[in-house]
Automatic annotation (TrEMBL):
This is Dipeptidyl aminopeptidase/acylaminoacyl peptidase. It comes from Novosphingobium capsulatum. It comes from the Bacteria. InterPro entries: AB_hydrolase_fold, Peptidase_S9_cat. Residues 1-39 form the signal peptide. Gene3D superfamilies: alpha/beta hydrolase (3.40.50.1820). Transmembrane segments: none annotated. Residues 480-680 form the Peptidase S9 prolyl oligopeptidase catalytic domain. The lineage of its organism: Bacteria, Pseudomonadati, Pseudomonadota, Alphaproteobacteria, Sphingomonadales. Keywords: Aminopeptidase, Hydrolase, Protease, Signal. The keyword Cytoplasm does not apply. One of its GO terms (molecular function) is aminopeptidase activity. It holds the Pfam family Peptidase_S9.
Length: 683
């Protein structure tokens, strides 16, 4: 396949690939293609069955400027429609991100684009049949009669044929009116929506479940609210089967359950205490016609396992999947009718599916044989309802990757687009995963990116801790790490203790260690790189976003002679307001417990209170439309640094959000980082 042309792979019988040879050719040649099938628009597989275009000379290597790395991905967080003809998701258009729908087969069908409202983030999109799209929106808004702000979520539906946008239950006054617990799979545009009607602890605070018709807007309550119940779950037939009740402190919870007959009463079947680190049974799906459910349970050995379990007796049955030691089951993939678990992902490869469905497992194996698995992964990212059409992501850690369409009917494969039209699929800087020992002997995993064309010896180095802190960096495409590496720096992304993905024991090792051992783990990663001869200890800087921004500022204060400079992007400067003030919140006790467990003294490990100890120059970058970390953190830090006579610069971007989803903002951020590193730690 050249220039995105169609390859007519052999017909794959019985829904699975019997040979990977032709598919190997399709994937191999597509990886070498220099241009997308259609820049920033979906390709048209049905019209691409003519012979491939003549080969063209390979494109010259792209200029690695900030603009190239700052490109908004062509497609993200999206899905294939149930009939397999369209894709919907977040599209990079005109330097910003929009919600869109594209027809893969009919170039005459006008693409649908919807701008995300100001001061709002789009969390996800979901198809309801082939003609309606759900979009969850989230905003951080002022509380009525209060100086506090709170997250508010709402749902809209988009009618594909007309582009009509309908606000679903926006007349309700609750904080969360966007919890979709069921979607019809019989062609009717109906959903079950769990929604609050008040932000205050009164009659409307606890959510009721509404059945909503997206075509008519009509709705009715199918499950009334119940005191203490904050979340509901339904089975594949649209029957509300369970609800989780939490006390006001949040420290005690219980699970209510009913059988498949909606006339049955809910009964309490499980209780748990957060203080005792107990876990409540959490059904993923309900097995049709039984009182069994599928759930993830963590054994005494710390291993996650996917079980079939009887809801009434809580006796475990067959084990569907066991996660490798030291990893977690990250998410599960369900059939469209929610009758079966098709596969699971694990934290060691969070985008890679372990298929439980036999046909899908055989198809994945055929894809894997078609590429070099050490360099390229083929991820089945979305399926049609009949699972005969799918979206494939060809990804590698050193390249942004590309999106493909594949159909079992005729073995049709087509590249839809590359994710980054500037970098295309040309490998940039190599990425690998390493392990090192922290000072107390704990094994820490880190992702290391080495600048392309440079020997990994005595390089200037940038420590790049992740956000969260309950998060994890893996060996996948990271535009920030790649940009920094392209400037000649070794980039190290340590998964310090308290990171997710390594099991409960590793997670709990972060308790009491925020700003202490969690920070030391980052420092020890630098020491390891120096001991291995990879990094020059006299040329080290630290950069991070969100919690990583906190770790940057605190790293400059805790170890003032270690780094030559730091860059905090949307960082948390004061822990008290951010994590330790939950008065009058529902579940305030649990929130307080969780955060107080992280450090004995918030003020003592807040960068805002340690400015006098900072020696290295600090660059602050923050978007004024950030709805995740308030811009006041960087405002205050900049003011405190200037008052103390410290070297500081502040790039305040008026239109940027937390994730820098506008090209101009992302480019401004990268340019500022590149200039700051070049000035204070030249490579």
């Amino acid at each position: 396949m050249r220039n995105g042309g169609m390859v007519a792979a052999q017909r794959l019988g019985a829904g699975v690939a019997r040979s990977g040879s032709v598919l190997a050719l399709a994937l191999a040649t597509s990886m070498m293609a220099a241009a997308p099938a259609a820049a920033q628009t979906a390709a048209t597989p049905a019209s691409a069955q003519a012979s491939a275009a003549p080969a063209q000379k390979a494109a010259s290597a792209p200029v690695l400027d900030a603009d190239a790395f700052a490109q908004i991905p062509f497609f993200a967080d999206g899905a294939l429609s149930p009939d397999g003809r369209r894709i919907a998701g977040k599209f990079g258009m005109g330097g910003t991100q929009v919600i869109g729908i594209r027809n893969l087969f009919d170039p005459q069908e006008k693409p649908m684009n919807l701008a995300v409202p100001d001061q709002t983030e789009a969390d996800w999109v979901q198809w309801v049949g082939d003609d309606y799209l759900l979009v969850k929106l989230r905003a951080l808004l002022p509380m009525p009669d209060s100086a506090d702000r709170t997250y508010v979520s709402r749902l809209i539906s988009i009618e594909r044929k007309t582009g009509k946008v309908t606000r679903l239950l926006w007349t309700l006054a609750g904080q969360n009116v966007a919890d979709v617990i069921w979607v019809a799979h019989d062609g009717t545009p109906e959903i079950l929506l769990s929604a609050q009607n008040s932000m205050y602890l009164d009659e409307g605070f606890f959510p009721s479940v509404h059945r909503v018709n997206l075509a008519t807007g009509r709705e009715h309550v199918v499950q009334s609210s119940r005191d203490g119940v904050l979340s509901w779950q339904a089975d594949g037939n649209g029957v509300v089967r369970s609800g989780v009740s939490v006390t006001k402190s949040g420290r005690m919870s219980q699970l209510y359950y009913r059988g498949a007959d909606p006339s049955q009463q809910l009964r309490t079947i499980d209780r748990a205490s957060s203080k005792a680190h107990e876990s409540l049974l959490d059904p993923i799906l309900f097995v049709p016609g039984t009182d069994n459910a599928i759930a993830v349970l963590t054994g005494d050995d710390g291993r996650d396992r996917l079980y079939e379990i009887n809801m009434l007796t809580q006796q475990t049955g067959r084990v569907l999947f066991e996660a490798p030691a030291g990893t977690e089951i990250a998410r599960t993939l369900l059939s469209q009718d929610r009758s079966a678990v098709l596969g699971v992902t694990t934290s060691d490869m969070p985008d890679r599916v372990h298929w439980l469905d036999k046909d899908m497992a055989e198809l994945q194996a055929a894809f894997d044989k078609s590429v070099e698995p050490q360099k390229v992964s083929v991820e089945i990212s979305s399926l049609s309802a009949d699972r005969r059409a799918m979206l494939l992501t060809l990804a590698r850690p050193d390249s942004p990757g590309a999106l493909y369409y594949f159909s079992l009917d005729g073995g049709m494969m087509q590249r839809v687009a590359v994710f980054n039209d500037k970098l295309k699929q040309v490998p940039v800087s190599p990425v690998k995963t390493v392990h090192y020992k922290a000072r107390d002997g704990l094994s820490i995993e880190a992702v290391v990116t080495t600048p392309k064309g440079r020997e990994a010896h005595n390089l200037p180095v940038v420590m790049l801790p992740h956000g969260g802190p309950w998060a994890q960096d893996v060996a996948s495409w990271d535009y920030l790490a790649q940009y920094i590496a392209s400037r000649g720096y070794l980039v190290i992304q340590p998964n310090f203790r308290g990171s997710t993905g390594y099991g409960a024991d590793f997670l709990h090792k972060g308790e009491g260690q925020m700003g202490l051992a969690m920070q030391d783990d980052i420092t020890d990663g630098l020491a390891w790189a120096v001991s291995e001869g990879l990094a020059d200890p006299k040329r080290a800087c630290i950069v991070g976003a969100s919690y990583g921004g906190y770790a940057t500022m605190w790293g400059l204060a805790k170890d003032p002679d270690l780094y030559r400079c730091g860059v905090s992007i949307s960082g948390v400067a004061s822990l008290r307001r951010e994590v330790n003030d939950f008065g009058n919140y529902y579940m305030e006790g649990k929130y307080s417990d969780d955060w107080k467990a992280m450090t004995p003294d918030f003020a003592a490990v807040s960068p805002l209170n340690a400015v006098d100890r900072i020696k290295a120059p600090l660059l602050l970058i923050h978007g004024r439309k950030d709805v995740t970390v308030a811009v006041s953190h960087s405002d205050a830090m900049a003011s405190r640094m200037r008052a103390a006579g410290k070297t500081v610069d502040y790039v305040s971007l008026p239109k940027a959000d937390h994730y820098f989803t506008r090209l101009d903002d992302r480019k401004a951020m990268l340019d500022a980082i590149g200039a700051w590193l070049a000035k204070y730690n030249p490579s």
